[in-house]
Protein 1
Amino acid sequence: METKDLSEEAHKYGYIEGNQVWLKPFMHFPARQVGDVKEVPEESLQYFANRFENFKLKVDGLLEKIETSENKGSFLMKVLHLKEQIEKYDAIGDFESLHQRLSAAEEEIKEAIARNRDKNLATKITLIQQAEALQESIDWQETTDKLKELRQNWIKTGPIDKALTEELEERFKTAVEVFFTRKKDFFQDKKDMLSRTVDKYKALIAQSEAVKNSEEWEETSKKLKDLQNQWKEIGGTLPRKMSNDLWNSFRAANNHFFERLKKHINSQKTESKDKYLEDNLEKKRSLVAQAEALLDEPVQQAVPKAKELQAAWKKVGPVKQEESDAVWESFLVACDKIFELSSLEHFMRKRPLPEGKNSDNDQLHARINALRDFIKYDKQELEVLETNLGRLNPNPGNEAFRTMLEGKIKNFNRKIRTKNELIELLRKKSGVQSNKIA
């Protein structure tokens, strides 16, 4: 805007009183001081008129983005923020017209949000109807896949009116749970039937094993042949692996000589297996030590190495059950520390410290504070999970969800513990007296 026009705008919407520059009242807002006269009154008025032009450019830019955007709802807070600024922004100009334009944009956005919620409501009602139509299905696998797909679509669908949210969530959840409860009951019945068949096979195995070491060769031979005929008469369909396992046990008991040979081979295998498991344990302990040593390396180098160690871990065979959980937990925590440090460094790069507050000690303190904030957020998530677990009804249909919640709670506890240990590590580096983190 030219200086002459700027001056006219300044006098139209502002004035000088004493050594103060004032904005004239507009709408329901009273006149207010926006600044002081520095030297020349006219230049001071023009200065604040020019500030208004800059503010108007922000409004114009935002409204243009809203006009061309399909997701208008994402701009609501920005519009409200600019409306709030109108009440206190130090400038002179036609704030009333800006307020009206922003108010119109606000209404347009709210209408768009309402339309989206109506659309989301229609989508969720359709998903509920589809889920309810499937809840009595006996096509277990296909229906399971369809319901999983419906659940994904439900999650992806945006929000609806809060007054309807709980009711519709419960309807959808109930429809899904009806099917999965029926599915569970069906397979439990099937399992019970299999169990009765297995019991018959096991009874024959027990009888054959009871005589397998007998030295009454002819009598034992007749007994085992009779048991073989009974085995054939049982029938029934079992899973292949289970059937093979039972048959192998029965067959092994039928031949005394091969049984002796089998015991010998098993003895050899046992010794070999123990050595194999011990070697695997040493390999895994070595990987734990390597992962823990990565804390002394720069994060950008440690992260790919940690991933390499994770890949190496998968190639190592099993260890004894009593050792497995502990060594895995140690390795998991060691790797978690590396990845937590990587996340921390990524967070810090996005939030550089102010100039003059960037010493090594300042950097360490900033990281400690960031970790504390992360712990706070983790504890908030943990509290929500524990609350949900406490509210979960103790019925069989909720066991899968209960297991999932317990797994997440365990993971968050480990995350919190890992971050606390990192804080202690950073404290030692900074020379700060260590205090227990709540």
Note: Residues 374 and 380 are 10 Å apart (CA to CA).
Protein 2
Amino acid sequence: MKKILVSTALLAGVLSYAGGFRVSLQGVKQLAMAHTSAHAEDASVAFFNPAGMSFIPSKLSIVAGGFGASNKVTFQNLNTLQSTSTDNPMGTPLYAAVAYRPIENLSVGFSFSTPFGSTIEWPSDWEGRELVQKLELKSFYFQPMVSVKLAPWVSFGASYIYAKGKVDWDKAVTQFGGELNIKDEKASGSGYGFGFYFRPDPKLDVSIAYRSPIDMKAKKGTATFQFPSAAIYPLLGLDPSTGQDKFTATLPLVEEYTIGLTYKVTPKWLISADFNYHGWERYSKLTLDFANAPVGNQPDPTVLVAPKNFRNSKTFRLGTQYAFTDMIFGRLGAYYDESPYTDDHFIPETPSFNTYVITGGVGFKLKQFGVDLAGGYALPQSRDVRNAAIGFNGQAKAQAFYFGLGLSYNPF
């Protein structure tokens, strides 16, 4: 039983670090229009499709922004009717980008973003404490990129992605009256992105982009056990003075395909739509190799392999913008985001729901400067949890909202 409790918890914590869900908060203007991508007014297009830099009106464009993201998850055990809710702190995703066109048909740029990460905090004594009490995730993407205009109506762009990340996760080991913290601050990986951006007509923009999977390599992860009795540590091959063990793992982040369209119905009114496809089936299994702890399920007892039944998922987005004047813009949008797993694979470490999101915002343009405000309200669909593998059954509900402030500067 000891081996099952420890193994399940470690897998859940590391999986969430790999990004059990995608956080769509990489542009304030984009969020207001359902986070659609075919917008090349400034450098915020760089994250979505590097090819879009070729169609930015100014030679130099700089953008930066941040979000507040609040969410609450409630789980109810349908046998006891006991209900438990999270007390999550506010998440603060950030982004920044710069694009510069040194010569007529060549643009270069750089994008910084935080596309994966959140914090979830359950009560320390709740019924799922052996799975998770608190989990903090952070990820950072650094993307240098280039775009070449192949013709007046089409461009090609590519980027290199360097990713850094952190996980800090607490859970209870109730069988021994102890706790476990798993932590890694130096996981990293690399990937790439590329895309084509088309403007066959002044009224129509088409964006086609691909972001590769990334294998995040954790080489110096630390698992720290705390037990009331020193006699327990030798059972796990641990030094009682530290209670620590090391682990290594390769953690896959998923690929993403995007097709986006923007059509200018009138000079003042445009409509945008996106389709995203996420390759979550990469999570067929997860392997961890511990230095000493015999918590594995392979011939080598320090190696732990677990199947993960994630599935590919899709997102559908629709947004619009209307220019009330040359300086004031109103925006609305809505999108539907599929969960990457079914009810019988629900996990409280990275709770995910089929979700409808309503978005809106305003933008102000003051000569070379732009200020954008956006908000979003999520309507996650409740789930009947039936995860027999971890003995987790009941009903899960959630609510979430987002708001953001973005700044842009196009000097020339």
Note: DSSP finds three helices and 21 strands in the chain.
Protein 3
Amino acid sequence: MSASAFRTVPASADVVIVGGGVMGASTAFHLAEAGVTNIVVVERGDLGRGSSGKPIGGVRAQFSDPLNIELGSRSLRAYREFRYRPGADIRLDTVGYLFLLDSAQQASDFEAGVRLQNTLGVPSRMIGPDEAQRLCPYLSTDGLVAAAYSPADGHARPGLVVQGYARAAARAGVTIATHTAVSGLDTAGDRVVGVHTSHGRIACSTVICAAGAWSARIGEMAGVNLPVRPVKRQLAFTAPITPPAPRIPFTIDFSSTAYFHNSEDGLLLGMADPGQEDGFDTTWTPEWLELFRTVARHRAPALAGLATAGGWAGLYEVTPDHNALIGRSGELPNFLYAAGFSGHGFLQAPAVGEVVRDLYLEREPFTDISPLSADRFHHGAETRPEAHVV
């Protein structure tokens, strides 16, 4: 989909979706499929350039929280069927996910996770260091206690998913207004009644915030507290590897968060910088690679010296408990939100699009997502514990 030609936006809509990333596109598709077509998706840049911009996104159902397992598992099924519905090749590669564990406590925690995942139909299992090394020959087993592996997980291309959903939504009559920034929301009583954009005002009967790392700002415009903070995460690509790299799982050193997997003619390398301050800066700074190399020297020595050929920086949208915010505002019942996925948005997007569709239509979603309400942080409710965060 090329940049939108809209000089103005439609004067009114039933639904305005703020954010043209994977969450906004999935929501637009699922609503349109259900017959809601008077929808405008408002995106301040090009589609999928915020948190969804990573060249490759992991897809998994290996979590410790049952709700995250359900959202991940249902989304995996949708990704497997994506070529038929909505109809696009998303370069899904089911290579599995391999979590490397280096303490008895981690092994015990992941064992509990695997037991829970198995009851929910996820084919994960605990394996020993030697089997982990067979799956991923780059590994050194030194200090490895165990690993958790699920062959059903893998990775796909977020950009292709966004385009697939957006094209199908547009075919169904959804208006997609790119290069259109939201500057304010109008409320009257307990309702949002309009969205101000750089290309005009849209009168509307529902607003759905799917603005990723920018969601707190959109929430503020409506007086709704969405505690999402932006944190830069970086990755790098190796130069082409000859002979070609073996096909390996999406491999994560759980203690350090360092991860790597196949990418085109080399590998993709990533890791969270524990010293990274909050902010919207997405400048790629190759210096962070030294953090990855330090871990790699011990865990996967052959990777430590590989030449790199560029990289990418994007934003995680992080909440206080590293779990999503999905729901309907208590103060403004026609303000819905799906944000704050803390790195899990791409892999949960198909299922969350269904959930938001059902919230809008006032139907019962396939699972109870009330624990993910943004209200959980300010009325003393227990936050969601999720151990499998990277």
Note: The first strand starts at residue 12 and ends at 18.
